[in-house]
Amino acid sequence: MATIDLQKKSVKIVLEKKQLTKVTARVGLVLDITGSMRTLYKNGTVQNVVERILAVADQFDDNGLLDVWEYDNEFSRLKPVSEKDFSGYVDREILNNDRLHKFGRNDEPPVMKDVLRKYVAEEPSSYPAFIVFINDGGCKKSIKPIIEASSDKPVFWQFVGIGNGNFDFLNTLDTLEGRAVDNTNFLHIEEIDSISDEELYDALLTEFPFWLKEAKEKGIIRDQEPPAEKPKKKGFFSRLFSK
């Protein structure tokens, strides 16, 4: 518990610096589990990532839970992780879970659509969703229409490239046109275990404050939780899932 307490302190320092201490947000983590990620799962790096992002959820989230997905050419929503059960989460819920597809090729659009399904259709809220998307290269360009279509939704995509893969497309995210707001950021960290907690959180939260401000100005998110909202119209999802 001592480690995650230190991580939470690091998050708090960064939130204070960026004037985000009063922000409530739902936090999601999408984990690449393609074949090239095998070593990072086996050596504990991914477990460490889960714990570090959990500290963000603990400070930000409306319920302290970190929602988790994993994907290769298939995807799964996993059991959310909390401070009570984070120890051994990757081994227990992913590596030792025979029902999950693991170490195949990458296919990002289906898991991104499921993230949007959860936060926009199934559980609509005035709280924004902050999504940390871990990828070790070769992200499909077909995520572009999904990012564009979700730019007027309360979802911010923080892509994190790890290792030495090909991140050519993710490097172009800031130049995508035709969006209501800039709803993405890309951060490349070659050795994620070698960066300090405070450095990691500072980098992860660089663009999020600017998106929050613009999304509020555009009416995409609101300051307070409104009365129960009706699910969004099906038009968005029928367009999204037909692509």
Concise summary:
With 243 residues, the chain is α/β, with parallel strands linked by helices. The chain is 37% helix and 15% strand.
Walk me through the structure.
There is one protein chain. The chain has 243 residues and is α/β, with parallel strands linked by helices. 37% of the residues lie in helices and 15% in strands. The protein contains 9 helices and 6 strands. It has a 6-stranded mixed β-sheet. Strand 4 (129-135), helix 6 (144-149) and strand 5 (155-162) form a beta-alpha-beta unit. Helix 1 packs across helix 3 and helix 1 (2-17) packs across helix 7 (197-204).
Key traits:
9 helices, 243 residues, globular, six-stranded mixed β-sheet, 6 strands, alpha/beta
What is the fold's blueprint, element by element?
Layout: H1 2-17, E1 26-32, H2 38-42, H3 45-60, E2 66-71, E3 75-77, H4 89-95, H5 108-122, E4 129-135, H6 144-149, E5 155-162, E6 184-189, H7 197-204, H8 208-217, H9 234-241
Parallel strand pairs: 1-2, 1-4, 4-5, 5-6
Antiparallel strand pairs: 2-3
Helix pairs in contact: 1-3, 1-7
